[in-house]
Specification:
Structural class: alpha/beta
Helix content: 25-40%
Strand content: 15-25%
Number of helices: 7
Number of domains: 1
Radius of gyration: 18 Å
CATH architecture: Alpha-Beta Complex
CATH superfamily: Spore Coat Polysaccharide Biosynthesis Protein SpsA, Chain A
Order of helices and strands: EEEHEHEHEHEEEEEHHEH
CATH topology: Spore Coat Polysaccharide Biosynthesis Protein SpsA, Chain A
CATH class: Alpha Beta
Number of strands: 12
Amino acid sequence: MATFALILPAAGRSTRFGASRSKLLEALGGASVISRALQPFLDHADCAKVVIPCGDAESIRAALRQPIDPRVEFCPGGETRAHSVLAALQRVPSEAEWVAVHDGARPLVSRALIDRTLAAAREHGAAVPAMAVALTIKEATGPLPARVQRTVPRQALWAMQTPQVMRRADLLDAFARCPVPLDQMTDDVQLLELAGREVWLVPGEESNLKVTSRMDLRLAELWLERQGGSAGA
């Protein structure tokens, strides 16, 4: 079976979390957020390489389970997520046909979700876990207060999660052909969409939340308690 490399972006500033240090270093059930995000991939037999683009490699290194797995490599992060992913992608060996990009702030990713997304990517070329949008969405020109322009039908709207999985060669090509500035990219497979490649969605998981605020961290703690504290440990 074809192997994959993991890119785990960790260069964000955590401004919305409201802390003096990265939210990825916060404790969650006896391990750091980023350690829990990483471990399920290290436990996967098909994971051949991990590249973590970050701004403070020593802090991230200290937050991971020791000793650090030899598959893990660090590289400098970029000014945006897309720049960080590109920097890490250039470190991925050509032997890894597939690349999975996963948020370092999603600490409860399950093995089932990883396998489901990998399987769909291997079948279709690229795949992303997604959740149906449950809220009513209004279109308006902000900032608020602003007049509503329309209500967006939500039946066809899906909220993206990670890991986002695609062929390494396809992602490199999409970066090279990207027609807009990288700071306008809001997720990784958007590059493939702009290059005209198919992206397929698979069912995501409610527990695969992204820690953005302190409330998110508390929700992750509750999910972990519900799962018996083992996820990503």
